[in-house]
């Protein structure tokens, strides 16, 4: 049975899809970078921001990040939305005594702001951010770091996310993986990464745990 559930943040626990898109659009306009389609931006979801910006301009990537972060800071609370079923699912998991963690590519200060916006921070035992690891998603290190802090084995963890970066991060670490169907990315493409579970709502994770428990018994 799973001892810990590890969650991606953006697009999994909170809906920042529009915030991210608007922040990218504003930044690219400011630097006169044209012709970038929304799906090109969406496909970067889950990557560290600097890596994403390097795809659009290697030379100006650091300046792009600076502009993005400033706009994102101003618009954060206005454009970030709640995802139905998230808090209900977390409550049920805490009642089961499952350890909960966030494993995100978002910097700690902004990640905590997003969690606190909907009072989700109180459910989390730990939050692993890019500051905590040398290598980031889709590499294994973020999940391995979370498991190390929680004092569990990777095979006893379930990594839940909305992107291929989350699925690969979990698989590379030896954890089970779970994809949320409300992702902004193409489901058909995400399915090629073979997540172990697929859910419509975080509430369904409790059903997965109950089923696993019965199989053990």
General description of the model:
- This protein has 217 residues and is α/β, with parallel strands linked by helices.
- Helices cover 47% and strands 13% of the residues.
- It contains ten helices and eight strands.
- It has a six-stranded parallel sheet with strand order 5-4-1-6-7-8, sandwiched between helices. A two-stranded antiparallel ribbon has the order 2-3.
- Strand 7 (176-180), helix 9 and strand 8 (197-199) form a beta-alpha-beta unit.
- It starts with a strand and ends with a helix.
- The relative contact order is 0.18.
Could you give the topology of this structure?
Elements lengths: L3 E4 L6 E2 L1 H14 L7 H5 L6 H6 L6 H19 L1 E2 L3 H10 L3 E5 L4 H10 L8 E3 L12 H10 L6 E5 L2 H10 L2 E5 L6 H5 L5 E3 L4 H13 L1
Parallel strand pairs: 1-4, 1-6, 4-5, 6-7, 7-8
Antiparallel strand pairs: 2-3
The outline comes out as: globular
What percent of residues are in strands? Answer: 5-15%
Count of individual beta strands: 8
- The helix/strand series, from N terminus to C terminus, equals EEHHHHEHEHEHEHEHEH
Low-confidence stretches: none
Give me the side-by-side strand order of the main sheet: 5-4-1-6-7-8
Subunit organisation of the chains: single chain
Helix content: 40-55%
The number of helical elements comes to: 10
CA radius of gyration is 17 Å
Structural class: alpha/beta
Distance between the termini: 10 Å
The major β-sheet equals: 6 strands, parallel
Q: What is the residue-mean pLDDT, rounded to a whole number? A: 96
